[in-house]
Structures are given as structure tokens and as C-alpha cells.
Design goal:
There is one protein chain. A hairpin with a 2-residue loop joins β22 and β23. α6 runs antiparallel to α9. By secondary structure, the protein is mainly β. The two termini are 35 Å apart.
């Protein structure tokens, strides 16, 4: 038998295969409703990121002014300018390039006075080439259309030089290009100042993106020394809230109970929430943790105050507060009264009432607004709580008005941190996000979905605390970003890193609900729970139930064969298609199979199809073909073939392994439903066969036979052997038959029979010599059998072996297969034709059998002759009777 095992090993050996601005609601209209709260992650502290006019550039000494009710602002500090050409103002006065020499002089905010020496070197020299009389131009590019109301220019005669003078013509134009012919004359500048420094002023009202100065030079010896230009345009208010420091009336207000960290100070807990530019929407739950909670100690009725302090004076025109009801909690409500005050301290008695806030919004998030025009450095909310259990959840505040925001130096930023991995995609283990150290950083702020989660950490990694998501869409991934922090005066904090995105999902499980990290197969039962899928049998049959039954049947059979199997669901529960795909992508799995039933409005539609997403390797298509062919081999379903699909969410999002989706018959067709039920086990086995072959395993039977010294191979088809034993001596000769068999679908039992007698069960070989072929998954399906035919009498024998397809622990395939038949012709001394006497009668029964068999006149099925064909002398009268006699045991 050891010889057999080695032989079988050689036969069966095989390798194992296995953004925030857009969030503001549109409230009101006109210039004063411009919300310029900086977006991003440093919105409340980094005014240099503000997009409002003239907040990051220095401006002239004249602040915004109000003329005839219109607020204007000097925008010259943010514009670019140049002369008529590169020779204008360059010869003898500076470098060759006009822009290079003059950049930053006319709008640097330095207004010359009567002592011209103070502005020497700060002027822009204007003249005509060769110092001739004529006209020169200076073009101011505003960058966008502005409504210009006034232009002021300062010229410096520089009395120390005789060739400095003043322009004889000073006209101002406004247009949308440098083309003077398409511009509008804004006005001729006038001056009453005849000193060394002369101020020219032109007023009007014109809209354009270019301001053009037309300067006339009357004398060939005059050079115009233009020292400063101010361009006043209609100002737009900005949201000053991000530049305010705010606090509540007391440290216990909104800090005790379940509304903040234990022992936290009011400012520590609430900083950066009300002015971060996150405007609440009707989806109030999305604002959880972003609100500032207000209540009276002990949840009593009373008044709460909130103070916003500025380091500069603001002309407040409108104040808007967003309150979130958070309907998931009974003790959230709205204030019964909100008064908004503006003053110069926290003292409400010295402040002026801007107005009582009003709202018409009755949703979960309400916007309360008060309008007016009061200047001050404090804005105070006075909120009345009428309900003793109400907590006011203030989510966002806007303070719209005029006034320069704090000038923040435009410092170079630190480099943004580089995350070690930018995308984790699907995972069921929360990933640790790591990043490279940034030179100059003293710490890092970590944001989860835009919310500051970890502040000033010196570590270079972060593991967020998040919940699994069973219902999500592709854009609903968790996003982690990191900002490098600095305490240097020479650098600013970095921009946020690119986001590390991941979707944290529940693990797939085995059939008992135990989470799995890896498996040979992952099986998805389509639909489930609140999603029954298609309906059949008049609505009494749900696709989700059929899918789950077939998924479990296939999985149980694969498990019985030694494969590991994971399931997206094992019970009647609902999960999105993306969640099911995510479970496959989150682990290390070999193959993905998704089970469905088809449906159509016309119940005549029927058949089976297998769907796949095309991929470069063709593995999806090959997988689909193998499974479809196995199901079709049953001969019960109409073949709708395999089909390429690019619109199926589950297949599009399972890309790390071959994946298919099976539509096993139409649930809308009664005949297909009957086939599904009647041949349920056969269908499951067919899918198993296709999946196993696709994975590189064999599903048929293989083995080896040694009979009378001859070797035979069994390879998927029943083996039929004819064996002649000549010169057989029953006393001294032994016929030895050794059989070994393995089956890819497992063996419940193997049995042998002689002359169609009783089947004798064959036990597997002892474990010590069991050989597990690599291309058969189940580890103990080698059955070996030895039969010694010692003392055989001459005659005809039939030896058969069969197996039952099942593995230990449960039947997998109920069919029985006879895989080996050996026809044994046992002959004694050689016989010849002379053994037939002169009357044509056979003298020797063995010789008669040989003659019949060798002549091809009989086979083993012709065993129906009568015993009476033998005469009284014991001689066979009819050659056909020989076969009957041979079949009768013990008859000679």
C-alpha cells in the first residue's frame, strides 16, 4: 500500500491555488450681506486667508468713509499699476523696467507732506522721453470691477531740483481695459494746494476694472513726481465675527453637566465654534458637537449673555445668529427673546440696542437677525430662556459691518504635512494616520471631518475614534487632515494636509457570526431586511430570502470541502450595496460571489445569467463563464449566458478580487421558481464546482489501480478494464488488486463489490499515510482498497468500486458513482479448438467461456440462460449456457 500511496502522489500532485462659503443660507440682499468668514481649518485665527477687500494689504492713512450714505474704502493698496511704456520714468531715474523700479511706491500708504525730502525716492517719475512736452498715462488694474467714487493723487515738486513740476492736465478715466477710447471720463482732478506737495482730487461714480490717469506735461523740462494715489470705491461689508473673541456670562454657562468636558473653562470648550464659518442647515444632527450650549444654572428660567469683543471699531449693520433645536433631545429649544447690543465694553447699560432679533424660520435651525448701524468694539447677545428645561444651542454667529479687520502679516507658511497614506478606502480596523515631520513645526492639529479633534500634539500619528458605517455613499468617508503649527514670528501655520480618507465598516462573518479578516470566498446574499428585492408567486416570495438560502447553501458546501467562507450577511438584515462591497474590499478574500434572482414584468422571461465587470486580466469573465457553464450542465434552466456589466455598484466597487453576480432564474416566472426549489441542491453544487475550478481545484475523482502487476489511472471518467488471467493456478497464484481514489467534492464513503454482490464499505487509510493532493481541497478524501483473489477458481468475475459524494459532517452531493469496473477472465491450462468434440459440443466449460468471450459473442449482461442446457452427461449442449453456468456460484 505504501507503494500505491507513492504512485498516487505522483498522479495527483498539483500546486495549491488559492466648502464652507456655500453653506451660508441666502438671507437678505444687497451689499451688506457678504459673508467672508474664512474657510478651511484656521478660519478663526488666520485673517490672512480672508478674501475680503484690503484685509491682508496695508492701506493708506485714510480709512473708509461715508459720503451721502455710501461707505467707501481706499482700494489702491491692492492694485497693480504701470506707466505708458518701459521708458517712461526709467531713464536716469531707476532700473530699465518700469514696473520693477516703481512697484509699491504709489500705493504704499506714505502720504508726502510739505517737506519734500521725506518722500525722496518714494516717487514715481513721469515724463515724456527726451523731456519733451506731451501726455503720459498711468494704468491702475483693480483686479475686478469696482464702483469708483473718488481718486486722490499727491505730486511732489521737489524744489531742490528745477526740472520738477506739476501736471498741466490731470484727467481720470474708468474702464475695463487700458484702452482710453473705451473708458469713461471720471473727472478732471482739481487742487487748491499750491505747496511743494500738491493734492489732486477727482470725484464721480463709475464702474470698471481699470483707473487711468492722463497727465499733461506742458514744459520740456518738467518731470512729474507722483508720490501717492488713493482710489476710493464703494465698500462691501464683511463678516467680522471670525476676528472677535467671545465668551459667555459665566464659566459655568454651557460647561457643566453633559454639555462639555468635565472641569473645562468656558473659553477652552467653546473656542472656535461660533465663528468657524460652519453654518447649520436643516440637518441639525450634523452640527452635534459644534454648538455652544446656553442655559441657566440648574436649567432655570432667566437671561444669558454672550459678548463679542473686537480690537478695532466695527460699524455694525447686521447680526445673525443660527440656533439649532436638535430635535433628538427634549431639552433643546429656542430663546424666547434675543436683543442685540453694540457698545465699547461688556456693560450693557452703556451699549446701544441694535435691535430685537427676528426670525421667520421654523425649521430645526433658525436664523435670528437684527439690523441697524452702530459703531462699537463689543456686540452683546441678550438671550431670554422661558422654558426651565431649555438649552439654547447657538451654532454660528455673523457680524456684518464695516471696519478694517486686524492686519495679519502675510507670513510664509510652513509646509503642509505629508501623510504616509492618503487613502485607506474600506477598512474594518480603524487606521492609524501618520505623517512626516515638518521642519519648524512645534506641534500639529488634527481634524476629523473638518472638526479639530487633536490640538498641538507632538506625535506624528493619530488613531481616530469613529463608529462603523453600515449606510453610506461614496463621499461619506471619514477624512483626516493635519496642520503643522508654529510659534515663530517668521512663519504661519501650514495649510491642511491632503485628507486621508477611509470608510470604517463592520467585518464580514462566518456562518456563525464570527468576524473574519480573511477567507477563500466571500458570499453576498443580495437585498435583505427592509429591501426584499423582487417579488414572486403573487408577492408571497421575496428575492432576499431565496438569495440568502442559496448563499448559505453554497457557503456551507464550500466550508465542508475545507474552504473558508465569509458572508456579508447571514440573517435578514439591510445594508447598502456599497457596504457589502466594502466588506469585500476591507479584508483579504479570494473570490466574491453575489446571489440574486431576476425579475421582469412579463412572467414568460426565464433563465440564468451571470454578470461580470470587465477587467484587464479577464479574471471576472473567466469566473462568470465557469459558474454559468456548470449551472447549464444541469440541463434545467434556459441559458441567458454571461453578460458584461459596468453599471452595477457592487461589482464596480469590488476590485481587489474576481467578482461575479448570479441571477439564478426569474422569480417572476413560476417555472423558474419550481426549478429553483426542486433542484436547489444541484444548483448549489454547480456553483461550488464552478467556483472551485476557477480557484484552481478539481471537482472530479482521480485515482490509481494496480491489478495483476498492471498500472491504470483514473482521471475523471469511470474506468473499465478487461483482465485475462491465463495459466492461472488456484493453489499457487494470487490476483492482487489495489485501488486508491480521491474526489474533489469529498467522499462520504467508498465501497467494493464482486460479481454484483454485496457492497463492502471501504474505510479511509489511516491518517499516518493519508496523502492530500494539492488540487483537492478536502484533506482526508483518499480511500485505498486492496483485494486479494487467492484461490480463485477458473471463471468470469466482475469487480466494481463506487463512492458517495459527501464529506464528513454532512452530505454535499447525494449521487453515487461507480468509478471502476474490472472484468476478470480467470483461465486454467491453455485450451484449443480441439476441446470441442466431433459433435460440436464443448468438453471443457472453461474453454467454452474463453471461446465465447474471445469471439465477442457474449458479455457480462447475457446471463439469462436456463440451467437445463447441460445434458445428462454433464456436457453443455448450448454454448450460450456457459455464461449462465459461470454466473451460478460453485457450479462446474
Amino acid at each position: 500500500m505504501k507503494m500505491y500511496i507513492r504512485r498516487l502522489s505522483a498522479i495527483l500532485a498539483f500546486a495549491i491555488v488559492f466648502s464652507l462659503f456655500a453653506a451660508f443660507p441666502a438671507i437678505g440682499a444687497g451689499a451688506i450681506r457678504v459673508n467672508l468668514a474664512p474657510d478651511g481649518y484656521e478660519a478663526s485665527i488666520d485673517a490672512s486667508e480672508d478674501t475680503s477687500d484690503d484685509t491682508s494689504e496695508d492701506v493708506s492713512s485714510d480709512d473708509s468713509v461715508v459720503e451721502d450714505g455710501v461707505v467707501t474704502k481706499n482700494i489702491a493698496g491692492g492694485v497693480t499699476y504701470r506707466g505708458t511704456d518701459n521708458t517712461n520714468g526709467t531713464t536716469n531715474y531707476g532700473e530699465e523696467n518700469w514696473n520693477t523700479y516703481h512697484a509699491g511706491k504709489l500705493n504704499d500708504g506714505i502720504i508726502p507732506d510739505g517737506d519734500s525730502t521725506e518722500t525722496k525716492g518714494q516717487n514715481v517719475e513721469i515724463y515724456v522721453a527726451g523731456f519733451v512736452a506731451g501726455t503720459v498715462y498711468v494704468y491702475f488694474d483693480l483686479g475686478k470691477e469696482e464702483t469708483v467714487t473718488e481718486l486722490v493723487a499727491y505730486t511732489n515738486e521737489r524744489i531742490s531740483s528745477t526740472n520738477r513740476g506739476y501736471p498741466s492736465v490731470f484727467n481720470v478715466y474708468v474702464g475695463n481695459s487700458e484702452d482710453l477710447s473705451s473708458a469713461t471720463l471720471f473727472g478732471a482732478a482739481t487742487t487748491a494746494d499750491e505747496g511743494a506737495v500738491r493734492k489732486y482730487t477727482a470725484t464721480g461714480n463709475a464702474t470698471g476694472s481699470f483707473v487711468i490717469l492722463e497727465l499733461g506735461i506742458a514744459s520740456p523740462d518738467i518731470v512729474i513726481a507722483l508720490s501717492e494715489v488713493e482710489i476710493y470705491a464703494v465698500d462691501e461689508p464683511i463678516n467680522h465675527a471670525p476676528y472677535a473673541e467671545y465668551k459667555g456670562e459665566g464659566d459655568d454657562n454651557g460647561t457643566s453637566g453633559s454639555y462639555c468636558e468635565v472641569g473645562a473653562e468656558w473659553n477652552e470648550y467653546h473656542t472656535g465654534k461660533l465663528t468657524d464659518g460652519v453654518i447649520a442647515t436643516d440637518a441639525s444632527n450634523a452640527q452635534t458637537g459644534l454648538s455652544v450650549e446656553f442655559y441657566n444654572a440648574g436649567f432655570a428660567v432667566g437671561v444669558n449673555k454672550l459678548y463679542f469683543k473686537f480690537d478695532y471699531e466695527v460699524d455694525v449693520r447686521e447680526v445673525v445668529g443660527y440656533f439649532n433645536n436638535r430635535n433628538n433631545s427634549q431639552n433643546r429649544g429656542y430663546p424666547s427673546l434675543i436683543n442685540v447690543y453694540v457698545g465699547n465694553s461688556e456693560d450693557l447699560a452703556e451699549a446701544t440696542l441694535l435691535g430685537e432679533a427676528a426670525t421667520t424660520d421654523e425649521g430645526y435651525v433658525r436664523a435670528y437677525s437684527a439690523e441697524g448701524s452702530i459703531k462699537g468694539t463689543y456686540v452683546i447677545f441678550e438671550m431670554t430662556i422661558s422654558n426651565p428645561v431649555a438649552v439654547i444651542a447657538l451654532t454660528e454667529v455673523e457680524i456684518i459691518g464695516y471696519g478694517d479687520a486686524p492686519v495679519v502679516p502675510d507670513l510664509p507658511k510652513l509646509e503642509a504635512p505629508v501623510l504616509s497614506s492618503s487613502t485607506f478606502k474600506f477598512t474594518y480596523d480603524v487606521p492609524t494616520i501618520s505623517w512626516e515631520a515638518v521642519e519648524g513645526a512645534v506641534g500639529y492639529d488634527v481634524y476629523l471631518d473638518g472638526v479639530l479633534t487633536l490640538e498641538n500634539t507632538t506625535e506624528l500619528s493619530f488613531t481616530p475614534s469613529v463608529a462603523t458605517r453600515t449606510n453610506y455613499n461614496a463621499s461619506n468617508a471619514y477624512k483626516v487632515t493635519v496642520v503643522a503649527k508654529t510659534d515663530s514670528e517668521d512663519f504661519a501655520d501650514s495649510l491642511p494636509s491632503e485628507a486621508a480618507e477611509f470608510i470604517y465598516v463592520d467585518k464580514p462573518t462566518d456562518i456563525n457570526g464570527n468576524p473574519l479578516d480573511t477567507a477563500d470566498f466571500i458570499i453576498d446574499a443580495g437585498h435583505g431586511g427592509t429591501d426584499p428585492g423582487a417579488l414572486g408567486d403573487g408577492g408571497a416570495r421575496e428575492e432576499a430570502d431565496d438569495n440568502l438560502a442559496m448563499a448559505k447553501a453554497v457557503g456551507e458546501r464550500l466550508t465542508a470541502l475545507g474552504f473558508t467562507v465569509a458572508y456579508t450577511r447571514t440573517t435578514d438584515v439591510y445594508e447598502t450595496v456599497l457596504t457589502k462591497a466594502a466588506k469585500g474590499e476591507a479584508g483579504v478574500f479570494g473570490y466574491y460571489m453575489c446571489f440574486h434572482r431576476n425579475s421582469f414584468s412579463d412572467e414568460r422571461a426565464l433563465g440564468v445569467e451571470t454578470l461580470f465587470r470587465p477587467n484587464d486580466s479577464g479574471s471576472n469573465q473567466a469566473f462568470a463563464r465557469l459558474v454559468q457553464d456548470e449551472i447549464m450542465a444541469l440541463g434545467i434552466f434556459t441559458n441567458r449566458n454571461i453578460k458584461e456589466r459596468t453599471d452595477l455598484t457592487v461589482l464596480n466597487n469590488v476590485t481587489s478580487m474576481p467578482a461575479i453576480l448570479m441571477e439564478i432564474g426569474f422569480i417572476s416566472n413560476p417555472d423558474d421558481n419550481q426549478r429553483f426549489d426542486t433542484y436547489f441542491n444541484d444548483i448549489a453544487i454547480a456553483v461550488v464546482r464552478g467556483a472551485m475550478v476557477n480557484a484552481g481545484y478539481k471537482t472530479g475523482f482521480e485515482g490509481a489501480v494496480v491489478a495483476n502487476g498492471n498500472d491504470y489511472t483514473i482521471n475523471g471518467e469511470p474506468l473499465d478494464i478487461h483482465l485475462d488471467l491465463t495459466n492461472y493456478d488456484p493453489e499457487n497464484s494470487v490476483l492482487d488488486i489495489m485501488v486508491g481514489i480521491a474526489n474533489g467534492l469529498g467522499i462520504k464513503e467508498a465501497a467494493a463489490s464482486v460479481n454484483d454482490g454485496e457492497w463492502i464499505t471501504v474505510e479511509p487509510e489511516p491518517p499516518i499515510i493519508i496523502y492530500s493532493p494539492s488540487d483537492f481541497k478536502y484533506p482526508s478524501n483518499i480511500y485505498a482498497y486492496t483485494k486479494d483473489f487467492l484461490g480463485m477458481e477458473a471463471g468470469y468475475y466482475t469487480f466494481k468500486c463506487k463512492l458517495v459524494h459527501a464529506v464528513e459532517g454532512g452530505e454535499i452531493y447525494a449521487d453515487e458513482t461507480v468509478f471502476l469496473t474490472i472484468h476478470i477472465n480467470v483461465m486454467g491450462d491453455p485450451v484449443s479448438v480441439g476441446d470441442v468434440n466431433e459433435d460440436g459440443e464443448v468438453d471443457n466449460l472453461d474453454a467454452a467461456l474463453v471461446l465465447q468471450y474471445d469471439a465477442g459473442l457474449i458479455d457480462e449482461t447475457e446471463l439469462s440462460l436456463a440451467y437445463g442446457d447441460m445434458n445428462e452427461d454433464g456436457v453443455v449442449d448450448n454454448l450460450d449456457a456457459v455464461l449462465m453456468l459461470k454466473a451460478a456460484a460453485g457450479v462446474e
